[in-house]
Design brief:
- There is one protein chain.
- This protein is of the alpha/beta class and 259 residues long.
- Strand 7, helix 6 and strand 8 form a beta-alpha-beta unit.
- Helix 5 runs parallel beside helix 6 and helix 6 packs parallel to helix 7.
- The longest helix has 18 residues.
Length: 259
């Protein structure tokens, strides 16, 4: 099934531009000269097997890890030249949806969603906070869970609330780290649909890190394959997988097995 694109992608406006990015941990060379652009309005999927550096890439983009060398430009800002204060300001414009949802177990859903607003937008009134919480809960289809604890939610519901907490600050860029990991097939389809809905409703540009080919096929406007620390292939899903020329790509397809 080809992903339907409603919001046009502006290929003249890269919101993330990465050139010759390297990152190692000791003798482990994870990223080996990566070039990557994310364009305004685009859902870009980064595919690769576990341990290939996908999560390292988005942690560098969000400023959670430092690069060894190369250029990382995010929303026009050079990540290598930002002060701590400037980095904090930029992070408010880049939402990071963690693999484990990163909810506070001691807080209700309402409190989890209020937390980033109270911390970063202290000028908001109680009524405005309530409105923002209800808006994002409605967007992810979980208004009924507002007073529940995270422990009372299913895995898929926790993912949705994690995405809602990221959306509440209205970021321009969304970074999704393995959004369908550990979920059953039906819930995976729901999360994939939500990622597409977020793109349309919030006009986000997104990088989706995954090793799930079904996720890639359903949400990706463009797919890039991370192989041995470099992006070896990119294009639409069918461009890469209909007749793979690289045996590593065929092996990855066979490993995942998409019907």
């Amino acid at each position: 099934m080809e992903k339907k694109q409603i919001t046009p992608i502006n290929y003249d406006n890269p919101v993330i531009d990465i050139k010759d990015l390297y990152k190692s941990f000791g003798d482990m060379h994870i990223l080996r000269g990566v070039d990557l652009a994310l364009f305004q309005g685009e859902n870009l999927v980064v595919l690769g097997r576990s341990g290939t550096g996908k999560s390292v890439l988005i942690k560098i983009i969000s400023g959670l890890l430092s690069k060894d060398s190369g250029k990382v430009i995010v929303l026009g800002e050079d990540m290598g030249n930002l002060s701590k204060r400037e980095l904090t300001a930029l992070r408010l414009r880049v939402g990071f949806s963690f693999q484990n949802s990163a909810l506070y177990d001691s807080m209700t859903v309402r409190e989890n969603l209020e937390f980033p607003l109270i911390r970063n937008k202290r000028y908001l009134s109680r009524a405005e906070i309530d409105y923002e919480v209800q808006e994002v809960l409605s967007a992810v289809g979980l208004m009924q869970a507002i007073d529940q604890m995270p422990s009372e939610l299913s895995g898929g519901q926790r993912k949705r609330i994690g995405i809602a907490r990221t959306l509440i600050l209205k970021p321009e860029i969304m970074l999704y780290d393995e959004p369908t990991a550990g979920l059953d097939p039906i819930t995976c389809t729901e999360i994939n649909g939500l990622i597409n809905e977020v793109q349309q409703q919030y006009k986000t540009s997104s990088i989706i890190i995954t090793h799930d080919l079904t996720c890639a096929r359903e949400v990706g406007d463009r797919i890039v394959m991370l192989l041995d620390g470099k992006f070896e292939q990119q294009g639409r899903f069918e461009d890469i997988f209909d007749k793979p020329k690289d045996p590593r790509v065929q092996a990855f397809y066979d490993y995942n097995f998409v019907d």
